[in-house]
Structure formats: C-alpha cells, structure tokens
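Lab notebook, bench 4. The sequencing result for the construct came back, and we need a structural model before the next group meeting so we can plan mutations. Quick request posted to the team channel:

Model the 3D structure of this chain.
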Amino acid sequence: MHDNFDVVERLCIRVPKLYDWVQRAVKGVNRTFDEAALSALGFEVSNAPGTSDDDPFDFLDLEGGVELRMIADLSDFEVTEMSGMNGIRPTVTTVLPNGETISLQRVRVQVTGEYRIELRDSLGTVAISEPIPFSTVKTFFLCAPEGTEIAGVVSAMEDDSEVDVAARTVDVDLVLCLNVYSLMDVNIEVEGSYVSPRPELVSDVCSLNTMPPTCPMIFPGVDPDC
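Done. Here's the predicted structure in token form:
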C-alpha cells in the first residue's frame, strides 16, 4: 500500500495504444419476412392462445394499425477480425487529400448479434419473436501493422424497419454505427500521484437517525432548580 498520496512521481503503466480508429454507418440487417417466414420465428403473443408456428398477424387487431419495433442489446453484438491468409493483413497504398502517400492495412471484420421483432396493435396485444441471429462482414483500411489487434463496438443502431399490414410482411432494416480500432499494449512513463478513495456521499441509516429540535423555553424551562 502506498502511504504518501501527495507526492508526484514518475510512474510506469501499461495501457493500450490506439493506432487507428474509424467509425462508419453500416447496413446490419436488410431482410423481408413474409407470412411463412414470420410463422417460423416462434412469436409469443400476449393475452392470446396459439402456438409458436402461428402467424402473429392472426392475433392482432389489424384495423387499428400495428406498430413495429426491433429489440436488440448492442452490448451483446460482437465485432471480430476475419484473418486473411497466414494471418497477414494485406497492405494497400493510398493517397491522402493533401497528396501524401501512406500505407494502410486492409482489415475485414464480422459483426454478429441477435434481434427480436415486436408487433403491437392498438388494443395492447404484443407479439414478440424469438431471437433472430444476423451476421455481416465489412472491410476497412486502417493503420494496423503487425503486432496490433483489432477491436470493435457497435455504439448505436438506427431502426428503419416497416410493417405492411395488408401484405402481412415485415421489412427489417437496421443500420449500425460501427467503430473499429487497431490497438497494441505499450509501456509508458507518466508523472502522477496515487489517489485514495473519496468519502461516500450517500447517507446511511445511522446518519438519518437525528435528534429533532427541542423547545428549551418551555421544557425544561428557566427554573434553575430543574
């Protein structure tokens, strides 16, 4: 345990160095589900009997309209590099807008995840499908020399899906905000000091048990014999 938290000294730490980072809006899912395809998604319908092989539109009030929503947890999406031959990333020469020539590596990443289709009618009946897996592969050009690792995260999702009640179809259209990084752990030296925990600001049951104000003028009064 470090005893002196006020001393500034030179510290060696190991941190990931960011070699490159790109962000792109990519098409994650673009798929149409007809009646047969919807019936195979194992919908669970609230307040309605039926089996997982039924068409969800059979249990919804279509005259009042149907709302469509995609359910997905972005933290469960995975972004992984698809290695090339012998694990070597091809190098491509490109020219920057200022005329400078640089060498970048071609990186292919695969985005995988799951989503659910939710249909809701005007009466409050909700039909939710089983998880539907998806996968898409995208190519990026990064500063990713040998020794670096590729990481990625989906930070946002735009849902442009539509439902056609007359045709009883669902068009799923999901656009993903994909961030791709090239990283490598490095040892660096910085100036700094150790820190200690701050005091907690949340009151506990002890601090809430306080004494209410008294009325000393009437009790115990001003009688010196009291």
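The helical segments are 35-39, 205-208.
Will bring this to the meeting.
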